[in-house]
Write a structure and sequence with these properties.
The chain has 193 residues and is mainly beta. The chain has one helix and 18 strands. The strands form five sheets. It has a four-stranded antiparallel sheet with strand order 1-2-3-4, with no helix packed on it. The radius of gyration is 17 Å and the shape is globular. The two termini are 26 Å apart.
């Protein structure tokens, strides 16, 4: 379902199974090199974050840390919140932002915060399952194509409110239905997304 690179290996997420290849090669996969996650549903996305690999499930987050597959640590069930889809998450400045069933969340590797509570009535009226996310020129973008909406925010505007929830200045763009961001950088990039 999803592929990532981390620690010079290829990682494959299939339903609730995680497989990894050998160091520095696409060949020689070993049958014993896998993790099975009983909790959290299916793997939606995987992102390098801090010194490890964050596995974002439907309703959970797991992480793998270590210098090799022979001495790695799996931190299971770090959250009961997960992503609605494979394109609905992005890492910026080592923070993972993702769309969950009830809004937009931020994961720093040990703490999870909801960052969209202040616009919850808007979020509740949108179709979240087709959301897509990207980072471009210092801003994080979440697209909700079924509703022709894009939310943009600058992570530097993040703050916590008195109840401990996260808040950001979110800018809404309407009339755009983007279901996938593909960021490719080239020498002749004109800077237009």
């Amino acid at each position: 379902n999803t592929v990532a690179t981390s620690a010079s290996r290829i990682w494959l997420g299939m339903r609730n199974w995680l497989r990894w290849g050998q160091f520095g090669t696409l060949k020689k996969w070993h049958v014993e090199d896998f993790e099975f996650f009983r909790d959290g549903g299916e793997i939606q996305a995987m992102h390098r974050q801090s010194e490890g690999l964050t596995i974002l499930m439907n309703s959970g987050i797991h992480s793998i840390f270590g210098t090799s597959v022979n001495n790695h640590t799996v931190r299971r069930n770090q959250s009961n919140v997960g992503s609605v889809g494979p394109r609905a998450s992005v890492v910026d400045r080592n923070l993972l932002y993702f769309v969950a069933r009830d809004g937009i969340w931020m994961w720093d590797g040990s703490r999870i915060l909801k960052v969209s509570k202040h616009i919850q009535s808007d979020i509740d009226s949108w179709t979240l399952t087709t959301a897509a996310a990207t980072v471009y020129e210092g801003s994080v973008y979440f697209s909700f194509p079924a509703n022709s909406r894009i939310l943009e925010f600058d992570p530097d505007t993040f703050r916590t409110d008195p109840t401990g929830d996260g808040r950001m200045s979110l800018f809404r763009h309407t009339g755009h239905a983007i279901d996938q961001f593909i960021y490719e950088y080239a020498q002749d990039d004109n800077g237009i997304l």
